Give the backbone structure.
Amino acid sequence: MNNNITGKTGVLGIIGWPVAHSLSPLMQNAACVALGLDYVYVPFPVAPENLRSAVDGLRVLGVAGFNVTIPHKEAIVGLLDGLTDEARLIGAVNTVKREGDRLIGHNTDAAGLIASLQGDLGFDIEGRRVLLLGAGGAARAAIVGLCRAGAASVIVANRTPEKAERFVADFRSVFSGANLALSPLDILKGDQRLKGVDLLINTTAVGLDGTTFDGLDLAPMAPCACVYDMVYTPPLTPLLAEARRNSLRFANGVGMLAAQGESAFSFWTGCEPPNGLMKSRLLAVLGSQDMLDNGLYSK
Ligand code: NAP
């Protein structure tokens, strides 16, 4: 933590509701201290009904930048002064930077996911077939990252089918060359179409606190396939436990959390955070070091 706060110290932070559980202050402050940058990163609990006044407040208080987490990522889009192309395409903002008097919204989740797939699983998306679970904000970031990285096909499976239909229609109009398809979530019940999936990504909230998908059976997946779960509490989600049971390579969302944070840090400060620092701080606090030691994350 910055112990030398002065009148010149830059303020960074995160808005969310709730926000007390956020691990971003830990990893962002660690990077500021490691580089000797005169910033401090603080949590701001913002109830949904207060979002507009909070954004106005952050603007007039001169905050240098902030992250945005659940439930504000989509609602904040219309309250900012500009968006990067990435944020506009995704339709959600997880990082805001002050530029003069303007607040510019960005989204680093897509880049974070792709970086984590490469770093944690050694998985290169180009030409690969993906099964994407979910059609919310995280799924929007994922599909942008996947299509930009050259995925051969993406099957989208979501609990609410109408939402998945709208989601696929939206992105077919953006990525006209992309091969996008729909499936019920029942594909997870040992469906033979799993044989043709190179990468399964969970972007839903299922897995949090040990919740699971009904009838989960990944046995048909090919031995070289990978499973990625954006959820990281518990570190070994039921989806990842099923991947392990079938000897598939897998990783949880810790690497993505770190990588989206690294991109946000660079966006605000113009500096690269020390390599691996944010992820190691997260693994230490989540008690996941044993997974690292067992080779379940990349080193
Ligand atoms: P969101 O916009 O609210 O979307 C939630 C998604 O989860 C929807 O597709 C929803 O399906 C599905 N879902 C929720 N409960 C379900 C259930 N019981 N059974 C089946 N599907 C269910 O939330 P989000 O922003 O996309 O975030 C989703 C998850 O990703 C969260 O756990 C978040 O923490 C995680 N995430 C992780 C990172 C990271 O860096 N690791 C980054 C971003 C998000 P319906 O459409 O049917 O409601």
